[in-house]
Amino acid sequence: MTTDLVPLAVLLWAVTYPSRAIGLLNPAIDRLPRRVLDYLQLVGPSVLASLAAVNTVIFLEPGGRTTVVVGLPWLAVAACIGLVAWRKSLFIGLIAAVAIAYAGRTAGLP
Q1: Are 69 and 57 spatial neighbours (Cβ–Cβ below 8 Å)?
Q2: pLDDT tier at 99, thresholds 50, 70, 90
Q3: What is the spatial distance between Cα 85 and Cα 47, in angstroms, rounded to a whole number?
Q4: E strand or H helix at 21
Q5: pTM to 2 decimals?
Q6: Which of helix, strand or coil describes residue 59?
């Protein structure tokens, strides 16, 4: 396992955390239209899904061919999105996605 993506994770945190904290810092955010608030709630799962898509959907083989790979990250993202839609809790969805990814990597799955 490498730590090449740690700076990217820190950058993502630096960008998404303030956008999520706007509600705590500005009480007037409740006056925003409901559609805008719904959109802001989906920032976390969309970032997670885009990271999974970039890392797993298109795999470039050494010969120059591309293949579509659907594996463990897609299961984690699907679980996250499903739980967020069902329970309306981003925290529960992200915890489930991390648990699935951790269990799969521990089991040796790609």
Answers
A1: yes
A2: very high
A3: 16
A4: helix 6-25
A5: 0.50
A6: strand
